[in-house]
Design a protein that fits this description.
It contains 15 helices and ten strands. It is an alpha+beta fold. A hairpin with a 4-residue loop joins strand 1 and strand 2. Helix 1 packs antiparallel against helix 3, helix 11 crosses helix 13 and helix 12 packs across helix 15. The longest helix is centred in the middle third of the chain and has 28 residues. It is globular, with a radius of gyration of 22 Å.
Length: about 450
C-alpha cells in the first residue's frame, strides 16, 4: 500500500519530547531486558506502573501530533514512532520491503546467539531462511503434523511438574514452572534425548544475557560455538516427531543456515511460558472465564484437541502484557505518509502496549477479554500484535498456541489453582500495566471428581 505522495517532512519531536520518549518509552523496556528479562527490574516496573506511563506518553504524542508517524532525532540514527492503527497495519503488511525486520539494534542484539536467523536477515538470505522456518514450523497449518506428540509431551511434563509441586507444600512458583517448561521445549525442538539437557538451556541464557547489551558487549564466540555444536549433535541424531527431524532435508552449508534457525525456536518459547503463567493467573482472578476454561480442559484429552478458549486466554495474556512490547522495522527507502516523508534507514517503532491498551479506543483495553480472540472479525483492522503481523508474523505461532494451551489444559484438568496471595490480581480492578511472571505464585489442590467440574480457581 503506497500512501499519497507528499514532500513535507513528518512532524518532529522537540528535544524535551525526545527526552521523554527515551526515558518513558525506551528506557523501561531496555532496562527490563529486550532479549532476556531481568526479574528485579520487572518487579520495579510493575510496582511503579512504568508501562502505564509509557502508554500515556504515546497517547500524549498522538493527541498533539495526530496520526504521525512522529520523528525523533536521536543521537545514532533517526527513529519514528507509529501513532496510527492504519500505519501500524501498513508497516506489518509491507514487510520486508520497504520495512525490513533486520533493524540495526535488533541485529546488534540477536547476532550474539543467532547471527544468521531469518529475523535479522535481508534479501535472498532472508527469503530462504524464512521459507525454511515456515516449512519446518508449518506456519500455514493451525495444527502441526507433530501436534499429537507435542500435546503428549505437555501432558507428561505437567504430570511430573504437579508431582514435584506436591513435594513443595503444594506451591507452584516460576522457577518450578520454568524448569518444567524448558523440558517441554527441549523435547519439542530437539527430541526426548534433550529432556534433561539443562546445560544447553543455560548456555542459551548466558548468550541472551550478553545480547541484552547489544553492541556494548563483546560476543561470546566460544560459547556460541559450543552451543551450536550441541544443536548439531541433536540434529545429527534427530528423533522422529521433533522439529530437529524436519531439518534433515536441508544442507548444513546452504544459505538457509538450518542450524542457525534453531536458537530462535528455543528462545521464542520462553515468552510463551511467561504468557502461559500469566494466563493461569488471569483465570484464577476471573471465575466466570475459569469455568469455561475448566470445561474445555475437562474434555477427554484428544491428540488433535484445539483448545480454542485456552488459546484465547494465552492470546489475551499476550495482549495485556506483550512479550515483544517494541516491534522494530527499518526503512530501506524513502517512504511517504499522510503527513510527510520518512528518510531511508529510519528505525520505525510500534509500541504494542499503546495499541493493545488504548483506552480511548478500546472498551476492553484494561480488562481480561478472551472472547475477542474467538471472533477475530471484531477487531480485524486494529493492530493487536501478539505475534507481530503481515509477512513478518511469527512462523511458530501455531506451535506456541498448541503447546501453551495443552499445558494449561493438563494443569487444570485434575487440579485447582489459586493465586498466593489471592489479591495479587482481581477481576474488579483494571488489569495492571505489567504482571511479572517471576513474582507469581499459586497454591495447588488436587480436585476430587465433584469439584473438578466446578472451577479452576478456588
Amino acid at each position: 500500500m503506497v500512501k499519497e505522495t507528499v514532500t513535507d517532512s513528518l512532524p518532529t519531536a522537540s528535544f524535551s519530547e525526545t527526552l521523554s520518549f527515551l526515558l518513558k518509552v525506551m528506557a523501561p523496556n531496555i532496562a527490563k531486558g529486550v532479549i532476556i528479562r531481568r526479574p528485579g527490574v520487572m518487579h520495579v516496573a510493575e510496582h511503579w506502573a512504568l508501562d502505564k506511563r509509557s502508554v500515556k506518553q504515546v497517547q500524549a504524542f498522538n493527541n498533539k501530533y495526530g496520526n504521525g508517524p512522529l520523528l525523533f532525532k536521536t543521537p545514532f540514527k533517526p527513529m519514528a514512532l507509529v501513532l496510527d492503527p492504519e500505519d501500524a497495519n501498513r508497516v506489518m503488511e509491507e514487510t520486508p520491503e520497504p520495512f525490513a525486520t533486520a533493524e540495526s539494534a535488533k541485529k546488534s542484539a540477536l547476532s550474539h546467539f543467532e547471527p544468521d536467523m531469518a529475523l535479522i536477515s535481508h534479501g535472498k538470505a532472508r527469503e530462504e531462511r524464512r521459507r525454511l522456518n515456515e516449512e519446518v514450523l508449518q506456519s500455514g497449518c493451525p495444527m502441526h503434523s507433530f501436534s499429537a506428540h507435542f500435546s503428549q509431551i505437555a501432558e507428561q511434563e505437567v504430570e511430573a511438574l504437579l508431582e514435584t509441586v506436591r513435594h513443595h507444600n503444594d506451591k507452584l512458583d516460576w522457577p518450578l514452572f520454568f524448569d518444567a517448561w524448558n523440558r517441554i521445549v527441549r523435547r519439542v525442538v530437539l527430541g526426548d534425548a534433550a529432556r534433561d539437557d539443562d546445560p544447553l538451556t543455560q548456555e542459551l541464557i548466558q548468550l541472551r544475557k550478553a545480547a541484552n547489551w547489544g553492541f556494548m558487549r563483546p560476543k561470546r564466540k566460544r560459547l556460541r560455538r559450543k552451543f551450536h555444536d550441541r544443536l548439531a549433535h541433536y540434529v545429527d541424531q534427530a528423533e522422529p516427531n521433533s522439529l530437529a527431524s524436519k531439518l534433515s532435508g536441508y544442507a548444513t552449508q546452504s544459505q538457509a543456515k538450518p542450524l542457525d534457525q534453531m536458537p530462535q525456536w528455543l528462545f521464542a518459547f520462553e515468552p510463551a511460558g511467561m504468557a502461559t503463567f500469566r494466563a493461569l493467573a488471569l483465570l484464577c482472578a476471573h471465575p466466570k472465564q475459569a469455568e469455561l476454561a475448566q470445561a474445555e480442559a475437562d474434555q477427554k484429552p484428544h491428540p488433535q484437541s484445539d483448545n480454542p478458549f485456552l488459546k484465547a486466554c494465552v492470546l489475551e495474556a499476550l495482549r495485556l502484557w506483550p512479550t515483544t512490547p517494541l516491534i522494530l522495522r527499518e526503512t530501506t527507502e524513502r517512504t511517504c505518509w499522510s503527513q510527510g516523508e520518512m528518510p531511508t534507514n529510519t528505525t520505525l517503532l510500534i509500541h504494542a502496549p499503546y495499541f493493545h491498551r488504548d483506552d480511548r479506543q478500546l472498551d476492553m483495553a484494561n480488562r481480561f477479554a478472551p472472547e475477542i480472540w474467538l471472533d477475530p472479525e471484531q477487531l480485524k483492522h486494529w493492530p493487536l500484535l501478539p505475534f507481530s503481523g503481515g509477512p513478518g508474523i511469527c512462523p511458530g505461532r501455531h506451535i506456541v498456541l498448541l503447546v501453551t494451551s495443552a499445558v494449561l489444559a493438563a494443569m487444570m484438568r485434575n487440579h485447582q489453582f489459586r493465586l498466593d496471595p489471592s489479591d495479587r490480581l482481581t477481576a474488579d480492578e483494571p488489569m495492571p500495566a505489567l504482571l511479572s511472571n517471576f513474582h507469581l505464585c499459586f497454591r495447588v489442590k488436587q480436585a476430587d471428581s465433584s469439584s473438578n467440574q466446578e472451577s479452576a480457581a478456588l
